[in-house]
Amino acid sequence: MRIRWRSPIRGPWLTSVLGLVLLCSLPVVILTGLLDWVAYGPGQAIPADVGVLHLPLFDWPTRPSWLFRLTQGLHVGLGIVLVPVVLAKLWSVIPKLFTALPRNPVKAAERATLVLLVGGILFEIVTGLLNVQYDYVFGFSFYAAHYTGAWVFTAGLVLHVVLRFPAMVRGLRSRSFRGELRTPLAQTRPEPPADLVAPEPDRPTMSRRGALALVGGGSLLLAGLTVGQTLDGPLRATALLLPRGRTLPGDFPVNRTFAASRIDPAAVGSGWQLDLGSLQLTREQLAALPQHTAALPIACVEGWSTRQTWVGVRLRDLAALAGVPAPESALVTSVEEGPFARASLTRAQVLDPEALLALRVNGADLTPDHGFPARVVVPALPGVHCTKWVRAMEFRA
Amino acid sequence: MTGLRAVGVLACLTLGASAATIVVRDPTLHPSIPWMLAWFAGALLLHDLVLFPLYAAVDRALVRLPTGPVPLVNHVRVPLLGAGLTLLVHLPGIIRQGGPVHLGATGLDQTPYLARWLWLVLAMAGASALLWVVRVTRRSVAGG
């Protein structure tokens, strides 16, 4: 079967431009994703056992307080924005898919590694998009699949960049970028005969600059529909099609509702006490302790974030009350049961002056959805570890 | 040169294989492995053998649209790509898949997404059509 490729603008230059955009941006997506694994903290990241396939371990800092908001917002946001660029890049090289496998075994194996590259990025895009929209139709662990897929993709990407970098540079040098930006449709001609260039193209219906504007426009459209999930105020609603563009009236987003936690309301009622091991505190007793105010973001692994004003007791004050003024770590347990119902905090996370066991937010008691009677908020801590409906805190010396 | 390439390919495959051991070393993930592989291959095949032929076929129909003084093709192509891209990226909300988890996570249902997407498509199509009319009018005023 012989396919007649028709596009008059497909060619090494266009492919190289798209490749350069991805070469500059994909490492950011990969690194911020791997940073998320570190941010979850030792023993808490999922998947737990990744062998040597992780970034060097370090204690996730508490400063700047918007650190996780930035890294994870970039991971998800940039990941979405690059979808049109990835699709355009695949379009630009698709004739190669329909060519015969090379006879040379090394070249054939090289071609086979493209399965890791292309399958990898499509798998990451699909699982990531489904996860941020709460569609678990795939039925397997998102974390394990997305993390593994990331390394499979990275393997394919590194080899592809090493092998194709010279071709990209040649492609970029073959035409003037500025010249292309000044070339209208009427002057658009196919690139000189080369790989990817159609031998018998149709008449152009779009200039190269038009094609780049189209791809960039697609990215801008998705950026405009995504950035709102990291903004507070009226602009949040601009994330029209994402779950985190919406909130209940007068509220801010939650990661999990009280109803979904399946907590017995009596367990967080008037009989609730915070268990500090050596002593128990009622909510009234907690409210009588020195209160501190901190404007801190809740930033979710799904890329959305929101900054609110929390009031509560400093974790380091609670540690001192529990008789462990200089804890090495703290284990926070929720009334809720399940995989995210406990979180371990590092020494720095407990001792930060803005690390709170919050009782109030924005001038009112926490609502059940926001973790009443008390919840943890720590600067730069992944939202999932800002435990809600706290039952106990164990400070470890 | 071929030797270097062979080393590169081997290193790439080794890294890919060691990535796969992440799911292999956790026995609770073993039942999921066939599904992960199916989704990996499925994403590739759906793109190469369904999505690409589909949009290529639609585009071939588009380039046959009347050329006239101001060609229609890009005024249809651009909003159609916008509609397709947003549909692809936001499919779960638009077709209301994953409702119970969405509700448990956000306290909200998925009702608004379909109507919002349709309005967005209408806005893109309307803006593109308006631009076409303006271009045709200017061309005829200019005596084209």
Protein model, in words:
The complex is a heterodimer of chains A (397) and B (144). Chain A has 397 residues and is α+β, with helices and mostly antiparallel strands. Chain A folds into 2 domains: 12-238, no CATH class; 258-396, Oxidoreductase, molybdopterin-binding domain (Sulfite Oxidase, Chain A, domain 2), CATH 3.90.420.10. Chain A has helices spanning 12-39, 67-81, 83-93, 105-132, 142-173, 177-181, 208-226, 258-261, 283-288, 315-321, 347-351; strands spanning 273-275, 280-282, 292-299, 305-314, 329-334, 342-346, 356-361, 364-365, 375-377, 390-396. In chain A, helix 1 (12-39) crosses helix 3, helix 2 packs across helix 7 and helix 4 crosses helix 5 (142-173). The model of chain A has no long low-confidence stretch (mean pLDDT 96). With 144 residues, chain B is an all-alpha fold. Chain B folds into 2 domains: 1-64, no CATH class; 68-144, no CATH class. Chain B is 78% helix and 0% strand. The longest helix of chain B is centred in the N-terminal third of the chain and has 30 residues, at 33-62. The mean pLDDT of chain B is 95.
Number of helices of chain A: 11
- The geometry of chain A reads as elongated
Mean pLDDT across every amino acid position of chain B: 95
Helix content of chain B: over 70%
What is the end-to-end distance of chain B? Answer: 59 Å
Largest β-sheet summary of chain B: none
Number of DSSP-assigned strands of chain A: 10
Rounded to an integer, what's the Rg of chain A over CA atoms? 26 Å
Give the count of helical stretches of chain B: 6
Biggest chain-to-chain interface with counts: A-B, 83 and 62 residues
Secondary-structure topology with pairs:
The complex is a heterodimer of chains A (397) and B (144).
Chain A (H helix, E strand, L loop, with lengths): L11 H28 L27 H15 L1 H11 L11 H28 L9 H32 L3 H5 L26 H19 L31 H4 L11 E3 L4 E3 H6 L3 E8 L5 E10 H7 L7 E6 L7 E5 H5 L4 E6 L2 E2 L9 E3 L12 E7 L1
Antiparallel strand pairs in A: 1-2, 3-4, 4-7, 5-6, 5-10, 7-8, 7-9
Helix pairs in contact in A: 1-2, 1-3, 1-5, 2-7, 3-7, 4-5
Chain B lengths: L1 H23 L8 H30 L10 H17 L1 H4 L4 H8 L5 H30 L3
Helix pairs in contact in B: 3-6
